[in-house]
């Protein structure tokens, strides 16, 4: 296995999501927070910075360069590695010297701004080659190694201590199993890519529920180096209805010894990442056993002062239940799960068997509905604007649940069909996307099957 030339363990944040990049003020706030949490790496790679990906051949304007210079200096002042990433894979011609020169020109500009560490991304691209590239390189992996190794050598001549990161086309276990990138893609990378280059890996999946030591050891043997974990556990750019503020979990502390670093690509909305960053830092620095829930509760306590309102005080209990509703991609937190199970079990029973459970569920739903409304009075408006669409959706569903239980409990078996003034057919839960989702609902095993033809023409 190759030896890392720069062995510092990288810990911190990747701004690598699809969507609007963070603002300058948000990045400066991030660096202050990272410094306090002893996180040492910020990777600049917003997918929708045009000159990171779509227009990767174009150098930055003087104004854009000035902004990046300030970011680099801010990181330097806090002993944070600023790593700049370029993503040329959509249309690069690997065999053409002109494209290598474009890469060098882009890195030259960043070197002039004070940047010392770089990354090359080949993720989320077509896994095929142009005929000229096939003739000269033979495979996608060899073509990518050819360009990356030449750029790495060129960079090290100018910046001997540069850290260089590489994101492969197949970057998770499922992609590896599907042979994305072609036959022997990853073994070729391991064999041909310079051992001084770190290689990203997201785990068994793009968003991995669990990453085991054995999994990382296996992929490390294939890559002939310790993988650098790109963790999408808190990423939400694929789901505009949710964000994730649960704890860093599903990864044992022993994983740290098998990786060259651990970087988180979190929620697109910067204000919603406080718990994600705090629990990541706690995981990186913990000694002994790791308790994700305890870390989450401590982080929520730390976040609570940000929820000052113009009216009634937000309690930690309410904030924890709200956070549990937006916990992690594969699970809700225990308080939210308890509320859901109580409501599900209640609605599955006949009215005669509801008993005291109806009042309990109704009270919890009403409390969360009122909490969501209370957050409209947040003094931190950037936090509110990051939350408001989710707040209103959760509030409407809690309102519907409360109204349903109340009407059924009041009228018993003689209750009329429950209606809502706020849930009109074709409006709430409406639109083309919602209709498409109802056509092919996903089953518990992950498969999709066609739904029965809807009986109500109103929804069609």
What do you see in this structure?
With 460 residues, this protein is an alpha/beta fold. It has three domains: 10-290, TIM Barrel, CATH 3.20.20; 316-423, STAT, domain 1 (Methane Monooxygenase Hydroxylase, Chain G, domain 1, Up-down Bundle), CATH 1.20.58; 424-460, no CATH class. It contains 15 helices and eight strands. The protein has helices at residues 24-37, 62-77, 97-112, 131-137, 140-158, 173-177, 185-192, 213-223, 274-285, 292-303, 316-325, 334-347, 357-374, 381-411, 432-439, and strands at residues 10-15, 41-44, 81-86, 117-121, 164-167, 197-201, 228-231, 261-264. The chain has an eight-stranded parallel beta barrel. Helix 8 links the parallel strand 6 and strand 7 (228-231). The termini are far apart.
What key phrases describe this protein's structure?
460 residues, alpha/beta, TIM Barrel, 3 domains, eight-stranded parallel beta barrel, 8% strand, globular
What is the percentage of strand-forming residues?
5-15%
- Any idea what the shape is? globular
CATH superfamily grouping of the largest domain: Glycosidases
Helicity level, as a percent range? 40-55%
Q: What is the highest CATH level, the class of the largest domain?
A: Alpha Beta
User: Rg from C-alpha positions?
Assistant: 25 Å
- CATH topology assignment of the largest domain: TIM Barrel
How many angstroms does the end-to-end distance come to?
A: 59 Å
Q: Round the mean pLDDT to the nearest integer and report it.
A: 92
Assembly category:
single chain
Structural class: alpha/beta
Low-confidence stretches: 1-6, 453-460
Largest sheet: 8 strands, parallel, barrel
Count of alpha/pi helices: 15
The spatial strand order of the largest sheet comes to 1-2-3-4-5-6-7-8
How many DSSP-defined strands? 8
Order of helices and strands: EHEHEHEHHEHHEHEEHHHHHHH
Count of separate structural domains:
3
CATH architecture annotation of the largest domain? Alpha-Beta Barrel
